[in-house]
Design goal:
The chain is of the alpha/beta class. It contains 9 helices and 9 strands. Helix content is 45%, strand content 16%. The strands form 2 sheets. Strands 1, 2, 3, 7, 8 and 9 form a 6-stranded parallel β-sheet that branches. A 3-stranded antiparallel β-sheet has the order 4-5-6, with no helix packed on it. It is globular. 36% of the residues are buried. Pfam families: DUF2334 (PF10096). This is DUF2334 domain-containing protein. InterPro entries: DUF2334, Glyco_hydro/deAcase_b/a-brl.
Length: 254
């Protein structure tokens, strides 16, 4: 069977969400050397400045030493722009999510926030290759600003996009809506259907959120699924390692 990879991705990583994730990460570490991709928010909802939490920064240093990847995930992870004016924007910013930070921003404001996040990584000597926008939403201004950063990639639930041209690479992902019991039940059914559909996909991403960790049903599902996929022969990798191996190396050779 052709090589198949697996990515374990933790969203919304911040000091206040670490207590949610900690038992799960400890359980994953107990399974062996499984690299994790951490989507790090510089100042989660303007109340979690990473620069104020030296212990948490040291924890992330340790994760890098284990072979994990740190990815820039917005700046504040909150949509603070003026109220939406069109039905589409109202749906995207008030129904789909309230956290689509980079959806309504201008190019200039997007660039400013991206520079702040990149500078944070530089000060901490954290390698940075990717940016994932909160709720995977990028408005036109944010797309232009991101393309000019020199970063390697961004992603949404179904694809990687190589920067600066946004070349799409298929990379299906599973993600839950876990805020209520019926949503968790539906998410499990949808995940199992997607697993069947993408059984032979070269890569499969598991996108976890802090709210998933607050419910035994969803937390145990992710741990059990990870174990199943490893037993099925999928190789755990970070995002940039997979891109380096399967996409960027071949592009450089061409």
């Amino acid at each position: 069977m052709a090589e198949r990879s697996l990515m374990l991705v933790l969203h919304d990583v911040a000091p206040e969400t670490w207590p949610d994730y900690r038992p799960f990460v400890e359980a994953v570490d107990a399974l062996g050397q499984i690299p994790i991709s951490w989507l790090v928010v510089p100042d989660f909802h303007r109340r979690n400045r990473l620069e104020d939490h030296a212990d948490f920064r040291r924890l992330l240093d340790g994760r890098l030493a284990r072979g994990d990847e740190l990815i820039l995930h917005g700046c504040y992870h909150a949509d603070e722009a003026p109220s939406p004016r069109t039905p589409r924007d109202w749906f995207m910013r008030r129904v789909f999510t309230h956290e689509g930070e980079f959806y309504p921003l201008s190019r200039e404001e997007s660039a400013r926030r991206l520079r702040r996040g990149i500078a944070l990584f530089e000060r901490n000597q954290w390698p940075l290759h990717g940016f994932v926008s909160p709720a995977w939403l990028l408005g036109p201004g944010a797309r232009e600003a991101l393309a000019a950063t020199g970063l390697t990639y961004t992603s949404d639930p179904g694809h990687f996009y190589l920067l600066p041209d946004y070349q799409a690479i298929d990379a299906p992902g599973l993600v839950w809506s876990a805020r209520s019991a019926w949503r968790r039940g539906m998410s499990r059914l949808l995940s199992e259907r997607m697993l069947q559909r993408y059984q032979r996909s070269p890569v499969l991403r598991l996108g976890l959120h802090p709210v998933d960790m607050r419910h035994e049903f969803s937390r145990q599902y992710w741990l059990d699924l990870l174990t199943r996929l490893l037993a099925d022969g999928r190789e755990p990798v970070t995002k940039i390692d997979w891109l380096d191996r399967h996409v960027l190396a071949s592009s450089a050779a061409a």
